[in-house]
Design a protein that fits this description.
This protein is α/β, with parallel strands linked by helices and 320 residues long. The chain has 13 helices and 7 strands. The structure holds iron/sulfur cluster (SF4). The site of iron/sulfur cluster (SF4) has 10 residues, from loops.
């Protein structure tokens, strides 16, 4: 797929044809199975100041938290019992004791036997290696936008080149790499979305989240309009055609903008992953990357999977 072809698909192909083609390719390449990643947001402390994110350092009004290792392990056990096939440990980008996180990873591996994904931002490569050694096998670190100028504008003090370097280092260590990008963030040009899709394909990512931008009141982009759901779905569908085997989540951001249909529509547009939250309820409220964030729990996951006609390997509801 060339940039011109991706742009044509993104902006000109009739939606029913594009959606059905993506669903068909997904079915052929990934069977009809939805994967369920259990998300634990274990800290909202962050040293960065991304202009779209409510966890940014300068948001001094936000109550900050760090879960203890025991709370994380309890949440991981709950996710495993509910049928999650992977545990995802996510936090803001902060200084941390790398050996503490290594021990958390190892204890989840010992206790649940499930693969562990980390999503903790740019860190020293030696720490990535330590966590890999401890049993983490996947790493989510989104490129956010393929436009270097926009990346620098959205992430003061950081560059897309540096982000790509971190992604390459993780891949070289043997992690399965997850990336992702925003749709409709202020300053994004239409052709950049085609570049996002081709960059994801070319970096051979194993997973890519495509989420509509949603403003957060305590950020410099507070007054900007949110990204379009139809364009987000179109980007997911073209991504599926460009990278048939990719894991594509129907994101929580989609559910936040359209609680009734967002994730179902995502699955029908080529997604094959859902990420319910197992963050303790008391802390979910303050993991406030954007406003109006939906609580995606296992009931919501089942509803979306069944409505979209996918298979899953979840235990019966009353056993979860
Ligand atoms: S997007 Fe990530 S790195 Fe940026 S401020 Fe938010 S939590 Fe921190």
């Amino acid at each position: 797929m060339t940039r011109a072809e991706a742009t044509e698909l993104l902006f000109r192909m009739p939606w029913p044809e594009l959606r059905d083609a993506a669903r068909q390719v997904c079915r052929e390449a990934r069977n009809n199975r939805v994967f369920v990643r259990g998300l634990i947001e274990f800290s909202n402390v962050c040293r960065r100041n991304c202009r779209y994110c409510g966890l940014r350092r300068e948001n001094r009004a936000l109550r900050r938290y760090r879960l203890s290792a025991a709370s994380i392990l309890a949440a991981a056990r709950e996710a495993a019992a509910a049928g999650a096939d992977t545990i995802v440990l996510q936090s803001g980008e902060a200084q941390r004791r790398p050996d503490w996180l290594a021990e958390v990873v190892a204890s989840i591996r010992r206790d649940t036997g499930l693969p562990v994904t980390l999503s903790v931002g740019e860190q020293p490569h030696a720490w990535y290696a330590l966590w890999k050694e401890a049993g983490a096998s996947r790493f989510l670190i989104r490129h956010e936008t393929a436009d270097p100028r926009l990346y620098a504008a959205l992430h003061p003090g950081y560059t897309l080149a540096r982000r790509r370097e971190a992604q390459d280092a993780l891949a070289a260590l043997g992690y399965e790499l997850g990336t992702g990008f925003l749709v409709g963030v202020p300053g994004q040009r239409p052709e950049t979305l085609a570049d996002d899709i081709l960059l994801t394909r070319d970096m051979e990512a194993a997973m890519c989240g495509v989420g509509p931008f949603i403003p957060q009141a305590a950020t410099p982009l507070a007054g900007a309009p949110h990204g379009s759901i139809p364009l987000t779905l179109r980007a997911m569908a073209v991504l599926r055609l460009a990278s048939p085997k990719l894991n594509i989540p129907a994101t929580t951001a989609l559910a936040s903008l359209d609680p009734a249909r967002g994730q179902r529509d995502g699955l029908e547009a080529g997604a094959n992953v859902l990420m319910p939250s197992f963050t303790p309820r008391t802390h979910q409220e303050v993991y406030r990357i954007y406003d109006g964030k939906a609580r995606v729990d296992m009931s919501a996951v089942r509803r979306a999977i069944e409505a979209a006609g996918f298979d899953h390997a979840l235990p019966p509801e009353n056993a979860a």
